[in-house]
Design goal:
Shape: flat
Mean pLDDT: 81
Radius of gyration: 17 Å
Strand content: 35-45%
Strand order of the largest sheet: 1-2-3
Number of helices: 2
Structural class: alpha+beta
Low-confidence stretches: none
Number of strands: 3
Oligomer: single chain
């Protein structure tokens, strides 16, 4: 990035979108080759902020994979304590 003279917010956002899209495509390709996978959802509160975590679990080529896909912030009354 130093060759380009630094990285502003727009460039960082664009690179992030490209990397996320590429990784989700790779995950899609892998999941199309396995016979089963599971999605796990977890609502929790960390340092006063609530999140919905999404995980995917699958076995591919004899190896168990456990990937954290995303953490979505929750607002208002959707705290981990209220969900519990």
């Amino acid at each position: 990035m130093s060759v380009c003279g630094g990285c502003n917010d727009v460039m960082a956002s664009n690179y992030t979108h490209i990397v996320c899209a590429a990784l989700l495509q790779i995950l899609s390709d892998v999941l199309s080759q396995v016979w089963a996978f599971s999605l796990a959802f977890d609502g929790s509160t960390h340092q006063g902020m609530s999140y919905l975590d999404v995980w995917v679990h699958f076995v591919w080529l004899g190896v168990l994979y456990n990937y954290h896909l995303m953490a979505i912030p929750l607002f208002d009354q959707h705290t981990g304590e209220n969900l519990f």
